[in-house]
Amino acid sequence: xxxxxxxxxxxxxxxxxxxxxxxxxxxxxxxxxxxxxxxxxxxxxxxxxxxxxxxxxxxxxxxxxxxxxxxxxxxxxxxxxxxxxxxxxxxxxxxxxxxxxxxxxxxxxxxxxxxxxxxxxxxxxxxxxxxxxxxxxxxxxxxxxxxxxxxxxxxxxxxxxxxxxxxxxxxxxxxxxxxxxxxxxxxxxxxxxxxxxxxxxxxxxxxxxxxxxxxxxxxxxxxxxxxxxxxxxxxxxxxxxxxxxxxxxxxxxxxxxxxxxxxxxxxxxxxxxxxxxxxxxxxxxxxxxxxxxxxxxxxxxxxxxxxxxxxxxxxxxxxxxxxxxxxxxxxxxxxxxxxxxxxxxxxxxxxxxxxxxxxxxxxxxxxxxxxxxxxxxxxxxxxxxx
Amino acid sequence: xxxxxxxxxxxxxxxxxxxxxxxxxxxxxxxxxxxxxxxxxxxxxxxxxxxxxxxxxxxxxxxxxxxxxxxxxxxxxxxxxxxxxxxxxxxxxxxxxxxxxxxxxxxxxxxxxxxxxxxxxxxxxxxxxxxxxxxxxxxxxxxxxxxxxxxxxxxxxxxxxxxxxxxxxxxxxxxxxxxxxxxxxxxxxxxxxxxxxxxxxxxxxxxxxxxxxxxxxxxxxxxxxxxxxxxxxxxxxxxxxxxxxxxxxxxxxxxxxxxxxxxxxxxxxxxxxxxxxxxxxxxxxxxxxxxxxxxxxxxxxxxxxxxxxxxxxxxxxxxxxxxxxxxxxxxxxxxxxxxxxxxxxxxxxxxxxxxxxxxxxxxxxxxxxxxxxxxxxxxxxxxxxx
Lengths: 386, 386
Known about the structure:
The first copy, chain A, is α/β, with parallel strands linked by helices and 386 residues long. The first copy, chain A, has helices at 35-39, 70-83, 98-110, 130-139, 213-216, 232-246, 251-269, 279-301, 338-344, 370-381, and strands at residues 24-25, 47-49, 92-97, 120-124, 144-149, 159-164, 184-189, 208-212, 224-229, 304-306, 312-314, 319-321, 327-332, 347-348, 350-351, 361-365. Chain A is 32% helix and 18% strand.
């Protein structure tokens, strides 16, 4: 994929003879790094679906989320119980086409219906996940509108605050920040609250919590997200939204997610000091090793800086550990624009402005394929202040 | 599923000793009738997906619909070419989570962006598919609003007309009906324009055409729909909508749809007077036989009437044939409410009012499981005017 060849490319801030002509796409959040784990699993995670199976729209007529396969619901409860990252007892689970759809569904469910001329403001502390704004703007709804940075929200109007923890793009652990007397509701986007990315310090028990298969195990192509919801009326509205938007969720993906999450759980349950590494151990080791290499390269370059995360005791791994986010949030020291700087190195990153931050900042994916990641580190370690 | 047992149920308009206590759900549009075809196919349609496969968000970076698997695009083009029901040459294909999501995506793509205070009116000739209204109302958008019956639309304001042909609920073949000087755009919902339901009289070549795997082969649980679009800018906006709403479409479902549609096409391509029936022959025979039984029962009862469809030459089957819709649109003669009448027979139907029609009308699914359908016919044939 990445072929580093000498070329007659124009001058750029590389200090040795590596003149790569290939572009590294570190802009996207495709979690391909975990593919290697699933490759060594042989047939354990294989799903086989016959032509006549899974044909109906319906999965479980006894559940208000009638399109959710019971076996998926079971493994979702099981993995949260195993990891200890979220309460599921006496909570309602709604499955969606990725957590993107459930984000919309939760906005729909939490927005007041009776004040059509006053859309509720949806806010998130900057830097915030770049897609929240796009999703809200594309819907152009009378019920909600993008309200920008939660940290400076001072309107005396109802709001919904999105709390992303660990945060995308910067990996920080978050709490609500709005300081307003107005009525506020919360959506917790906990996509990255898994032990490979951050210590599991508590069992989250928020009103609306969003999770996704994409970040839990790396299966982004399946488009499976789930919400854990306290209030049944909110859960029902969310299920209605998914019903109206897409008449449910792919059963093939649900079956596969149930299988793979089940295999992860089985691994821990049947663990008898086997030689093979379990999923969260493998993925944590991988992300940690990448971060160590990456930090070293960045520090060596002195062009960029990257946040240092506090350590905490992880209830799941029973050890003290740092946060190792799925993305690096780089700050370009000096006056240069971070995105432009990386462009000169043929590294494609996502601009800070898209996250409500300064152009000095850029987001770079830590979970690309090995070749891409190694080349990224190589290029970063070779840059010097001009 | 359906157990017809004598019971001490209260009086109702049955004339013999059948007192069924079970409820037949003929309300939903679950196309389970075709399951029998796929059951006899053995492993030909089976998909096997390994744990490490299909992990990326991305399918084809060279396509503006980057989340669509190239093999799905290929079979979509292939089946339309085979059946001759829609032009795909020089058209853009966008895949979605069912045609429901693509319906929303097309509204988004066709609505003018620059007149936020004047949402475009979305209309469809009554009786119209009951979900259009729900989908539009749930979004509560500034860009579009539900404008009701297209036949009486007389506002001098921009509109989008949804042309559903064959129509859901009544199976009629439709053309646009709005008679207005205002600027209008069209969405053609051709979910049922397949040879098992209606003669293929022409290759449809409309601006935005929606199709779905659910109705083509009966695989509703997969949530795969596709749009065939003339204008690349409209197609791009639709793809952007699917991206923002759900970050693409399940790859497991796409893989399976590609496999199954491919098998249907292969059957015709490799056909050497084999003894096994091909999919559209099988499904057409099944729907036709059901309609013949159903019509006989309804005519015998004299309580309900059902539309008679004109015959036409089908370019695909090379024979003259009627339309055999996926639903029966029944009119209860006399003054009775059709839905209430069927309720007394423990038949659950969808009320005419939900389709913008009179309460005398009801929609009944023709594609339930064999047992359900046979019991439905049995109950209908036994009713008499009281």
